[in-house]
Amino acid sequence: TKNPHDKNRCCSSRQHNRKKTYPAPPFLFLHAMKTEINVAAGWWADQLQRTTKMATAGVIVFQKALEAELYARFEGHWYQDQPSRGAAYRCIVNDIRLDTALEKAARAAKILDPLAC
Questions:
Q1: 8 or 102, higher pLDDT
Q2: How would you class 3 by CB atoms within 10 Å of its CB: exposed for 0-12, middle for 13-18, buried for 19 or more?
Q3: What is the pTM of this model?
Q4: Helix, strand, coil proportions of the chain in percent (round to 5)?
C-alpha cells in the first residue's frame, strides 16, 4: 500500500509539515494586557509627577483612571500571538493632540489644563 500522504496523491506537503499551533488561554492574554497597561500608565504617571510636582494622591488617581481607559480601549484589540497587530490602534499620542485616554484620566485627577503638563 502507498502512503496516503504521498505528495503525488494528496494535498500539498506543506499542509502536513505545518506546525499546529494552539491559542494561549484567555487568562494569559488578559494578564499580558494588564501588565502592559500597568507599565504604560505607570510611565505616564511618573512623567506627570516629574513635570508638575503634583501630589502623589492625584498622580495615583490619574494612573488608575488611565489604566481603566486603556483597558476599555484595548479590549478586543490585543493579540498575544501577533504583538504588532493592532499596535497603531493601541498607541497613546501626545504630540500635536492629546490622546483621549490621557485627557479623561487628567479630568479624573482634576487637572485643569492637561495640555500644560
A1: 102
A2: exposed
A3: 0.69
A4: 55, 0, 40
